[in-house]
């Protein structure tokens, strides 16, 4: 008798399951972000700039693991849309800051991201949510640059 549904033989592999879950979650977030004409990566960059005014393009690229050529293109697009501006740091380096339009859009993007997170975590039983988040965080590097700005300030 033929099967009516296919079996995914890789779902027992944690890395594979994580990538599949991530792909689905990002696709959902991407769809939600179309309401404000941003991609998730654009929103992430705006939020990093909001949290770190004057941050350099290369620092953002390192923190978000975006290759330099891609970061150049991404920043150029945000500049062209009037969402960010360059600011002089030391005469030879430029930081990036949000414009008022960028600030407004970053806030809207964050609200959408929070809404997405509620939907995402709603799929995880409440009793497992804390362990779920702890497990995800355990898979991430503990480098200084990956901690939130408030945590870095406290550590200094």
Summarize the structure.
By secondary structure, the protein is mainly alpha-helical. The protein has seven helices and two strands.
What is the topology?
Layout: H1 14-33, H2 40-51, H3 57-64, H4 68-80, E1 84-88, E2 94-98, H5 100-121, H6 129-138, H7 149-155
Helix pairs in contact: 1-5, 2-5, 3-4
Report the span from N to C terminus.
66 Å
Q: Mind telling me the CATH superfamily name? A: Winged helix-like DNA-binding domain superfamily/Winged helix DNA-binding domain
Remind me, CATH topology?
Arc Repressor Mutant, subunit A
The helix content, as a percent range, equals 55-70%
Q: How would you state the average pLDDT, rounded?
A: 88
Biggest beta sheet summary: 2 strands, antiparallel
SSE string: HHHHEEHHH
Radius of gyration: 19 Å
Which range does the strand content fall in?
A: 5-15%
CATH class: Mainly Alpha
CATH architecture: Orthogonal Bundle
Treating each run of at least 4 consecutive H or I residues as one helix, how many helices? 7
Low-confidence stretches: 144-156
Structural overview:
The protein has seven helices and two strands, in the order ααααββααα. It is mainly alpha-helical. Strands 1-2 form a two-stranded antiparallel sheet. A hairpin with a 5-residue loop joins strand 1 (84-88) and strand 2 (94-98). The protein is elongated, with a radius of gyration of 19 Å. The model is unreliable at 144-156 (pLDDT under 50).
């Amino acid at each position: 008798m033929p099967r009516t549904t296919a079996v995914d033989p890789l779902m027992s592999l944690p890395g594979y399951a994580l990538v599949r879950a991530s792909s689905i979650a990002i696709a959902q977030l991407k769809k939600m972000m179309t309401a404000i004409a941003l991609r998730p990566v654009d929103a992430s960059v705006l939020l990093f700039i909001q949290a770190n005014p004057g941050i350099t393009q290369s620092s953002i690229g390192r923190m978000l693991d975006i290759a330099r050529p891609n970061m150049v293109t991404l920043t150029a697009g945000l500049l062209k849309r009037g969402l960010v501006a360059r600011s002089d740091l030391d005469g030879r380096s430029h930081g990036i800051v949000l414009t008022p339009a960028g600030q407004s859009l970053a806030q809207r993007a964050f609200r959408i991201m929070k809404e997405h997170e509620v939907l995402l975590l709603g799929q995880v039983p409440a009793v497992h949510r804390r362990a779920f988040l702890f497990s995800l965080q355990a898979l991430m590097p503990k480098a200084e640059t990956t901690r939130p700005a408030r945590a870095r300030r406290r550590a200094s």
